[in-house]
Amino acid sequence: MAIRESLESSEPEPSLEGILKWWVARSHLKDGAPVSVVVHRGKLLQSTFRAVSRPNFNFLLPFHVSFSGEIGDDLGGPKREFFRELMKAIKEAILEGPDSNKVFRHDISLLHKKTYETCGTLVAWSILNGGPGLPVFNTDLFSLMTGGDIDVQDFTSVVDSDVRAIFLQIQEATTEEQFEEALSKNSDWLLNQGLAPYNLKIDRKDELLKILFKNEIYFRVHSEISQFIDGLNRVGNFHTSAILRAAKEFKTLFTPNPVNHLTFSGLRQMYKIEFSPVGSNHRQQEDEAIYCFESFCSDCEAGILEVSLEDLLAFWTGASEVPPLGFDHKLRITFNENSQYLLPIAHTCTLVIRLWRGYNDPDQFRCDMIKAITWTGGFHLA
Prior knowledge:
Low-confidence stretches: 1-5, 378-382
Structural class: alpha/beta
Mean pLDDT: 89
Strand order of the largest sheet: 5-6-8-7
Distance between the termini: 29 Å
Oligomer: single chain
Radius of gyration: 25 Å
Number of helices: 18
Largest sheet: 4 strands, mixed
């Protein structure tokens, strides 16, 4: 309690972790018996909407997730998997464009149902509970959503190919004649955007492209964006209190960031190996098994397998990326007696992978590990 009060009253540290801790403390998460959230894996977004739309549902209360028809207590793993899959579902439901360059989809039926608001609330709820953000937004869009400006570099986030072609025609004009021709050819479209294409000179080309681009990714879908931000603010006033306070830091939770890509060296720092004593027969077998495991990790990082380090992390923890505030404790590798019939097993709630002593063939281990990851379909064991 004293720590939480200290965080609430003090200014946050100028880092994503410091600001998140400060925001979580100010959000006043409540104590009490966990609320049950039952979701359908095949209809994740719809079933989540239904669960959180109950009149007495409170996003600040503790909760347990149950995937209908599946056995497993939520001690952390199912919740991590739930938020991971929920963010994917939200991305598909309300956004459009390339995976690393998403913008809001204009959809009046979703606006009418306040789907954008609910999705914003679910994103804030995920981050509040140690889940992922939504790192898929176009960087210019995120800048506009946080009171910044834009520096137009390219138009890959313009989904409509005809509109993108118009942008390129204007951009590629290098003479006054070419510029006037591009405007004349597309005058009806420009008028529909609320811009009269008359008396414009090529020296204003960059300004024109900036206005048109801002309209395409922001003004055109401003109602959707406003609803989404309203949803973010329903949980701890997240957008106003935290994101606007430190937009630069929060950018990593809402836009693609290659620096956050999982590496083997980064993963290696997150887990500890529970070896038997040095010199024992078990230790020799465990050294062989760990060599097989870490060779597999290296192959994942190299991109030569059908699974990635993110897939391995999801199998191990239920989360395909490291949460903004990290995991509650270190990941662990433990060992069981040798078995030629059983695959490696993950306990997502306790962050444990169990390997079988006696693995000594990296190629066989690779096959078994890929089977374990791809056959689970969801969290393996709680």
